[in-house]
Every structure is written in C-alpha cells, then in structure tokens.
Amino acid sequence: MSGYKHVFLGAFVVLLLITGCNPAESPAPPILIEPVTENKTEPEPDAIVRVWSYFDLPELEESVKKEFPTVDIEIQTFEYENFTDAYIEALVNGTAPDVMVIDNGRAGYFNTIEGLDNLLDPPYNAGEYWSAIPEHLRGLYRSFKGGRFIAVPMKLDAAVTLYRADIMEQYGFPSEPDELTAFIKDADNLVKMAETLKKDGKYIFTTASDPVNIVSFAGNILNEELAFTRTSPAYGDSIELARIIQRGELSLQHSIWSEQGKAAVQEGRVAMLFLGQWGVQLLQEWSPETKGKWRMAQLPFGVYGFAGGSSVAVSSQSRHKELAWEVVKRMTSPDLGVSEDERSPFLGGQNTGPIISESLRNMKVQIPTPFDHELEKLWWDSVNILVWSEHSIEKEFTRLEQEVERIIGDKRKFLLQP
C-alpha cells in the first residue's frame, strides 16, 4: 500500500475494497477486514486501547484512567497530510487501532469502505448521539450506503465571520453582529468596506478568492447523485466579485496560513476572517492582545456553511470495543458541543451560541464522497484561472462538469447501486 498514490487511496478507495486493485475487474463482495493477532513478549495490563489522531489529545489518557486505572491508552499522532493514507493502509492490512479520529473534510475516504463499526449496534447503542445530529448533517457521520453510524462528531463546526468590531466602528460600518450580518449580505457593501479600509492598509479579504471560499462553505462538491454542484449562479457571482477584488488589489494577497498573513493579523491589518468557529481559538493563540476586540457574525451573502471539524470512529478490528466506546464518550458529548449560551471572553463576552445554532439549522445537506479531495483540487485550480483572467466562467464550468464526469465515470454505479 505504501507505494500507492494518494489519489488512489482517496478517490478510488471504494474500488480497492470492492474490486481489488484492478478497477477493470468485475465487482466482488466487499473485503471484510479481520483483526490480526499480535504476539506479546511482555505481560500487558488489563487492556491497551490504541487511539490514532491527527492532532494532540493531551487530556484523554488522564480522563480515561480516572475510571479505568488499569487500562493503558496508547495514542499515536499523525501529520495531517499523512493520516488518511495511514488509516486506510491499517484498515486494509489488519493493523488498525481501536479508535480513529477523522477530519470531517476527509470523511469521504471512509464512508464507502468496510472497517468501521456501526455505533448504533451493541455494545455502543449510540442512538442518543445519532438523534442529536441534525438530519441534514448526518451524511457526514454515516456510511454512504446503508445508513451505518460510523463516526461521532467531536463538535459541530459552523463557518462564520470573525471581525474586528473596533475597526468597524472606527470606519463607520456596523459593529454589532446582527447589524453586520445584514450589511454583508450585499456584495456591494463588502466592496465599499474593502475600498475604505484599503486606504489605511487594512483588509477584510486576505485573498481575492475569499468570496468563492465563502460560497463553497455552503455544501459539498457533489450531491447525493454524485453530480457536480458548483456551477450555480452563486458560484459565478462569487468569481465575478473575486475578479473585482483582484483588479482593485482589495485583498491582503496573503493567506492567513502564511507568515505574512499571520503577521498581518497580529499587526491589526486584517479586519475580517471567514473561518470555522475554531478560528476564535486560533486568534487567541496568534493575537492574545486583541482580546475583546473581535466579534462573530454569520457569513456574507446569507450563506450558512459547515467548517469541517472532527469525528471519532471505532475500528471493526478493535478487541476492546466496550473500552473503545468509553474512550469515544470522553472525546465527545451527546449535545455535540452546541449550546444556546456559549459566551466567549475573547469575543468581548459575546454569546455565540445562537449564531452557531442558526447556522447549523440552515446548512445544506452534507454528503462527503471518496472523490471530494481530488475534485476540490480541480475546482480551485479552475477558480484561480478564472479569477486571474477574463476566461468565460460559463465555458469553464462546462469544462469542469465534463472533467468531473471523466473522473467519476462508471465508478458512480458502484456507489449508487442498491
């Protein structure tokens, strides 16, 4: 497996587990991955629960040991760019851990394969968690077919606007969250704001393509029928706005993930960001001296968007399923981390709960697929061409649809057949 390219592991992993390594072969029954017996050279404690993640889990072991002092928690952390391949390789070769933390943006790699337990079955009986997930978001946590509940969300993350209220007030723009949300529904107001702030070296856009990213928060690149979704007028309009920003040099021209972008945030030259609600923690780490100056509002254009987050699954190979579920319960909550009263000192004590709840209620249906990662790259390559040129948006969208069809092709029937 280590020699397989990432795109094979991603977009074609369903074929790997259904037909073997040759997509041209006739479909065969799915491969059921069996646990592998390991030889132990030393006595082991009552149990070792292995947890894989792509970020640190510093409090997990202590939390579990409070109730299960003889249980060992073995945590392995992977780099984000490597975790998908590592997880899939382990599921295929029989070396998977008990518990796996999955990025929701990569859920499509895992919802079409064998290897993750249905958490509605014993010993998990996780109906309370399943019922708490809004119906239109359940596709993120279930198998693509069959409706198996394969991962529990650690938290439901909405995409939001984070903005410097002090800068808005200084320049005469709405500074209260509700007022700003209404104001930025109109693209012309955003352009006016960008032009005004640019005169003093401040920006509400970090890159010209920010409007496209905002609209892209709204939903998946493919729908339930595996048809391309990003040719609607909203996407065309966002590209036209991005062209205005690019021509007028109305953006910082640096991603916040770059050193220049991070420095601009710290220097007070970035007045607005469009991120998941986790962006609040990011700002706290990057710019703690701005505590009390930031606020949260909904996204521009009336968009309600989903911003990834993480979920937790139990491998079918786990030999300690009850204990694995105890670990999962300590990483999640039946209320999914959503509260109507969630006040943030960093945001000046603002209650962000109603904003998150409203966004989650109004999001579009989320359906991750194994093609998403490859198609996202294709999409953003086209967006960058369109933003920096005068190419016909309509013609490029037509070309994109044709290219998506070429990539998916006959593989669609393997996912959509009953």
Describe the structure.
Strands 2-1-3-9-4 form a five-stranded mixed sheet, with helices on both faces. The chain starts with 5 loop residues before the first helix and ends with a helix. Helices cover 39% and strands 11% of the residues. It contains 17 helices and eleven strands. Residues 1-44 have low confidence and may be disordered. It has 418 residues and is of the alpha+beta class. The relative contact order is 0.17.
Question: What's the gist of this structure?
Answer:
The protein has 418 residues and is an alpha+beta fold. The chain contains 17 helices and 11 strands.
Estimate the global geometry from the Cα principal axes. globular
Count of helical regions: 17
How much helix, percentage-wise, in residues?
A: 25-40%
Widest sheet, order of strands: 2-1-3-9-4
- Mean of pLDDT: 88
Largest sheet: 5 strands, mixed
